[in-house]
Amino acid sequence: MLEWLRTQFSLSAAHWQRYATCFTRLEVPARTLLLREQEIAKRAFFIEKGCLRVWFTSQGKDVTFQFFFEQQTVSSLESFRQHTPSLFSIETIEPCVVWWVGRDDAYRLLVELAELPTQREKLAGMLFDRTRHYMEHCLSFIRDTPKQRYQQLLAQAPQVVQRVPQHYIASYLGISTVHLSRIKK
């Protein structure tokens, strides 16, 4: 995982030696909470292996609103940045291997990488991609039917349908598991 990160940011060996010590490897079983809703996020995670979901509680029910897989990053950015309670939980769906970086180290890395224009652009792109995903998902609830949302999920993220339990997919689509079964037929 660390080697993959190094290639993504085209860092020299000297830079990388300084940064590699900021990351800690963690193996966790399925259904492990890495962050609880209302806690302050102190870590950002890079996924080497496995699948995670991001969810919150609404009217006593879990509402899943994003999935993360290998070579993706996840954190409650607002909480991490502003020391405010997280609006959501982060939980493993499968047994996972993640690498985490603490807040102070992450800020040091961001400051140093921001001085390198190519690296700054990559970081900005990662953040904009995440924002775009949230916006598209939100708009799909206004614009699309549940069937259209499911078809888009199949087309854009087939790994979700292959690896994620049906009840999480139904929650992500804003429908019941019964409705999801009907759509699939």
Distinctive features:
185 residues, alpha+beta, Jelly Rolls, 4-stranded antiparallel sheet, 9 helices, Cyclic nucleotide-binding domain-containing protein, cNMP-bd_dom_sf, RmlC-like_jellyroll, cNMP-bd_dom
Task: Write a structural description.
By secondary structure, the protein is of the alpha+beta class. The protein has a domain at 2-115: Jelly Rolls (Sandwich). Helix content is 51%, strand content 24%. It is built from nine helices and eight strands. It has helices at residues 2-9, 13-20, 77-82, 103-114, 117-143, 146-156, 158-163, 166-173, 177-184, and strands spanning 23-28, 33-35, 43-49, 52-58, 61-68, 73-74, 89-92, 96-102. The protein has a four-stranded antiparallel beta sheet. A four-stranded antiparallel beta sheet has the order 2-7-4-5. The longest helix has 27 residues, at 117-143. The N and C termini lie far apart (39 Å). The mean pLDDT is 88.
For the record, the CATH class of the domain at 2-115 is: Mainly Beta
Global structural class: alpha+beta
First-last Cα distance: 39 Å
Give the CATH H-level superfamily of the domain at 2-115.
Answer: Jelly Rolls
Shape: globular
The average pLDDT value, as a whole number, equals: 88
Which blocks of ≥5 consecutive residues have pLDDT under 50? none
Under CATH, the topology of the domain at 2-115 is which? Jelly Rolls
Q: Report Rg.
A: 17 Å
How many beta-strand elements? 8
CATH architecture of the domain at 2-115: Sandwich
What is the string of helix and strand elements?
A: HHEEEEEEHEEHHHHHH
Note the main sheet.
Answer: 4 strands, antiparallel
Percent strand equals 15-25%
Protein name: Cyclic nucleotide-binding domain-containing protein
InterPro entries: cNMP-bd_dom, cNMP-bd_dom_sf, RmlC-like_jellyroll
Domain Cyclic nucleotide-binding: 34-110
Organism: Hymenobacter ginkgonis
